[in-house]
Amino acid sequence: MAQNQFKLLGTRRFLPLFITQVLAVFSDNLYKNALIVLLVFRMTEEEANTLINIATSLYILPYFLFSASAGQLADKIDKSKLIRIYKMAEIGIGIVGIVALFTRHYALSLAVIFCYGTYAALFSAAKFSLIPQQLNRSELLGGNALIQMGSFIGTLAGTIVGTLLVGFTHPGQHGLTFIAIILMCGAFSGYLASCAIPKAPPPSPKLKINWNPVVHAMRVIYSAWQTPSVFYSIIAISWFWLITTAYLAQIPNFARDILGGSEDVITLLLCSLTVGTALGSLLCNWLSRGRIESGLIPLGAIGITCTGIALGFHSSNFHTLSNANLTQFFNSQGAFLILLYIALFGIFGGIFTVPLYAMIQDRSSEEIRAQIIAISNMLNSLFIVAATLVSITFLDILQISIPKYFVIIALLNLVVVSLIFTKLPEFFLRGLLLLPARTLYKVNFKGLEQIPSEGPALIVSNHISFLDPMILADIVERYIRFVAHPAIYKSRLLRCILRMSDAIPIGLDLDDPNSRERTYKAIEESLENGELLCIFPEGKISEDGELQPFLKDIEEILRRKSVPVIPIALHAPPQTKISMQKPQKKKRRHLFPEVLVIAGQPVESIDTDSESLQKRMRDLKEN
To answer: Which of 389, 412, 434 finishes a domain?
Structure first.
């Protein structure tokens, strides 16, 4: 079961970083949203659209310019020291920003936005690479979820405070003064919190920094390419930021022009999105049992598409109001559905991104982890700038309405993530297995830490139902490639899933004498590539749940390659025994059968045989 992720907030190795992150996001969102709302309601629509898109691009551009250097610095220098330096710089940026707001100097304000983006790019590389250095692997997903939640708490608070205080900036009012005081208090408090972050020794202190962002980026991208799950996670996160920017950047104009709302309605919509994303991030730890679960990624992707389409169609039929306040907006027909769709978009966005960030941190080499995270930020910036150009093309040049634009982006999301899933089927397959494995059975497990986290290994399991591969694929964190006998491989229930997961069939062509030899060679190649295999050596499902004699194939597989072999016993208590035979009429049928999965200690394949494995599995079931 997943541990309580909120316990991390009681530890020094996480709490100071969390507070520093929340205050950092709060400060730049306070300033950025105050400026954007000023532009929207103090200028014409055309001028506001142009300046908002420019401000968004200026905030993102530093990620492209400075991310490569930020990653190298984070790998070369103590990250806690770097973060303190960055927080001191944030104080200076805030002072200049206050001057720009008081003087209504929009050019200087845009320069401040660029500086906040630079600070965020530097801080992001140090922050995300510090998380796996301070937390255990079992805490990684929960830590990322809390960091994401903290980001959206800061975003929400900064958005509300900045937007509301701008409403009190008319002559004789003191909104800008309050913005200045709060901005400085947040910056100084963030610096004090950063001083409590424990030391984080750099993994590559002798690294020679390459200041050419393009050359260095290509080298790091090539390194990431060597681990497909890392590379395609980076691409997926970058795409997410494109579609998020496409929606988020249009919220002010959407609220004003489509809904007919005031500044308060803009704040409400942004709050719905940020609260939803924070909730989605926290849900990840519960949905994945605290593990880094790639199966959540397709769930998030599909949810983003569905809610984006629903938002677009529903808002296109919304009766536009006239500078409506919150009460007038809530009294209008369809207002609650719009808020719901925006919140759901955020929830599915959180579910989509948290596992991706955790996978990058977990599967990247420690020596270049910060650099890979930084390059991910650089690609994010390119995709976000691309989103701005896409917005200008559709909304300004092609004159597409905002609701139709939301639908188009949602459909594009479905296309792009489908292409990513074809390159890395682990995402889709684990998502496909997640629902039936979690809903059809009540699964308990122990001893799964015996399975190596990397490198070649062979799982040997008994077989009690057709859904055993789904159960194992769900509870074992690593991607499993199954070795299936004909009775299993040809079953209607599992045929599609096993073929999509590139399962290795044994003796599928009985008329071909070389069929089995090709199978053995395929198993050897898979193990040489460091994959995790699983075989059900009984070759068929046990009707009574008891172990059946092993087929001879297991002996040949054990003999050919020396790898760790992990015996696993699947056990269904007598009152909930799972059998594929038709139940007797007098037997009680359970809606959610209980299954216990027990993993034993690994043994080298050359040191065991089928009889020894069978005895180990029998002992596991009895104990």
So the answer is: 434
